[in-house]
Structures are given as structure tokens and as C-alpha cells.
Amino acid sequence: MKYIDEYRDGQAARALAASITRTVTRPWTIMEVCGGQTHSIVKYGIDRLLPPEIELVHGPGCPVCVTSLETIDRANAIASRPDVIFCSFGDMLRVPGSRGDLLQLKSQGSDVRVVYSPLDAVDLAAARPDRKVVFFAIGFETTAPPNAMAVWMAKKRKLSNFSALVSHVLVPPMMNAMLGAPDNLVQGFLGPGHVCTVMGESEYRPIVDRFHVPIVITGFEPIDLLEGVLRTVEQLESGRADVENAYARAVRPEGNPRSRQLLNDVFEVCDRKWRGVGMIPQSGFRLRPEYRDHDAEQIFKVDDIETHESSICISGQILKGQKKPHHCPAFGKQCTPQTPLGATMVSSEGACAAYHAYGRHLEAVATVDGAQAPLMSTAT
Questions:
Q1: Which residues form the signal peptide (predicted)?
Q2: Of 121, 259, 329, 380, which alpha carbon lies 20 to 30 A from 45's?
């Protein structure tokens, strides 16, 4: 398949859905790991093409959504300083902290800037030696290499006024934590394709061995997702559990060795708190000691943060796959993309934002079992 339309072909999608229907004999609960996959599932109605035996639940696979409230509040505290130029990707500006967001600080006069590459922040630090330039480094393993490169470059260029507020999170420890929880219902995973382009397959094999769950590394288009579901169901029905790569056009078994080496050089693994989930041991990256001169958390001493989360937001349960957005009484009412109560509504990859964008907040019936599946389109 050379062209994107081939991965959105309606006839091919229906054929895969029919194969899943023929294969499944009992109920199975499958979690897609990546928020981009969640967005595509809702956009294209993938969940409605599936037989009722297959329940897709949405995992904490959006880095914007799982960045802890404490980290957001630390970012806001640093950005509010008059000597700071605070740089971030645009999707973090509206994530609500305890007392507002970065966009509100910008409107109040703080120097908050959207950058399109972490290296832009490094160049800004070189151009403005009179100001402290801070880059908000968040994300899964996918965005960690360019963020590591920014810190590496700042050290090499001796830019003492550049620092990074690091809050990277790692996928395999999160999967371990979810599978080890007493209330876990997940029986198989659609693995995160873009993360695996960096990290490869090897980190997922211990999870398969420990919990005997299939993990099928999957892409983001409708055909990718349906193929991933089919391979997962085939494993579940046969009693197998293995790591399969259904995204071979992008993922190599070893990942990207040079990126992995860069991550090892700049970062070390640490415990990390996930918003709505809690502390997960060894689930994050922080800067190694030799890069601590560029560690914003150390430089600005913002550890003593008192947080206040919305009392009616259930994003934590949504991130853990326990509930879906339409189960929240505030969904589409008090909580909308214009007035978000939680990060799952702010991020374009958040489950709540995806459900809202494609009109599911307008539906009177929460369950979609038995509903007529929307026709797939080949339009981009």
C-alpha cells in the first residue's frame, strides 16, 4: 500500500471487520495505548464496525493528558516569572492547572511562546542571553529524542540560560501497572506504533511473558487499527500471547538505535506521577546529573506545589479505561473544548476531545452496540 487512501478504504475495512466477526467466539476487552489511535477509532467509527463481543477501551496514551497536575502547576509558576521566556508546544497551553493555564498567563503578560521544535528554544536562549529560556519537555518516548537533543545542544553550546522542565513518561511501566491492578479488565493491547519506531519491540516481551496478554503494535489509520484488532483477537481466541508487529512499514524490531543511545546519554529512568493515574515506579525520564545545570525543576525550586483538581472531572477513570467520556455527567455540559475541566478534553488526542469533536456528546444513547456502523470514506 503506497498511498494513504488505501489505509482508509471502506471495502477493505468491512472485510477486516467481517474477519473479526468470524474469528471471535466470546467477549474480549482490548485497549489501544496511543491517544492518536483513540482519535482515529472515534473519527472513523472503528468501534462501531466491530462485533459486540469486542470492547475497545481507551488507555492513558496521550502525553498531554497524563502530565501531572503538579507539573502543570510548576510550569505555570516558572512561566509567571518576569525573567523567564517559557517555551512549549501549543497543545500544552490550555491544559488546566490548579489556578489557570499557560494561555491565561500569556494573556496577563507572561512571556509564553509556542515553538515547533525544542531546538527553537535553544536558539532563542542563544539570542537572548539576558533571559532565562525554559522549554517544557513532555511526551512519551516518541518526543523524548528531540528534547534530549535540545538539552545536549545547550550543554555543548554552553548556554547556561537554557533549561528544560522534563516530564517524560514511558509506556511499558504504565502497561505493567494497569495489568497488575486488581480491577484490570484489559485482555490485549494495540501497541503504540510511534513509540515503537523509537524503542522497538523488546520492552514489551517481558509484559507478555508476565501477564500472558497479546500486544500487537499498530498504526493509526483505519486499516491499521482493524488489522491490529484482528491479530489481537486471533491470539486471544487461540490462547496465545506474543508481541506482533502490524506496523512493519514504520517499526523495526530494534527501533531506532541512535535515538535510544541519545536517550540513555541524557536521561535516566525515574518514578513519575501520571495525572489521573497516580505514581508509577520507574515510568519516567529525568535529566542525568551531568545535565542538572539545565534542569528547570532544580534551578527554580518549584517542588512545594499545592494542587487542586476538579471535583467532578472523571478523567482519571477514563485514562485507566474504566469509563468512557459519555459516562461523565459534565461531558459536553460543564466540560467542553472551550471550557475544559480536565486534560482529556484539552488535548486533541484526549478521549473526551475526540468524542466531543465527532458528536458523541449529542447522542442520547450511551451504548453503541448494535448501532449501524458509519460507512468508511476514502477522503483524507
A1: none
A2: 329
Return d(Cα 239, Cα 244) in angstroms, integer: 15
Across 7-128, the runs of DSSP E, i.e. the strands, are 28-32, 54-58, 84-88, 111-114
pTM summary value: 0.86
Query: Interhelix angle for 10-23 vs 222-238, to 10°?
Result: 10
Closest CA to 48 of 379, 373, 375: 373
Residue whose cell numbers read 447522542: 363
Measure the N-to-C terminal CA separation of the chain; round to a whole number of Å.
15
In terms of Cβ atoms closer than 10 Å to its own Cβ (0-12, 13-18, 19+), residue 283 is buried
Write out the three cell numbers for 177.
Answer: 501497572
Give the DSSP letter of residue 136: E
Number of H helices, E strands in the chain: 17, 11
- Any residues with CB less than 8 A from the CB of 40 and at least 6 apart, and which? 46, 220, 221, 222, 225
**CATH architecture, domain defined by 4-63+173-240:** 3-Layer(aba) Sandwich (3.40)
Indicate the domain borders of the chain.
4-63+173-240, 64-170+255-300, 315-362
Evaluate whether 350 touches 35 at the Cβ level (below 8 Å): yes
pLDDT at residue 2 above 80? no
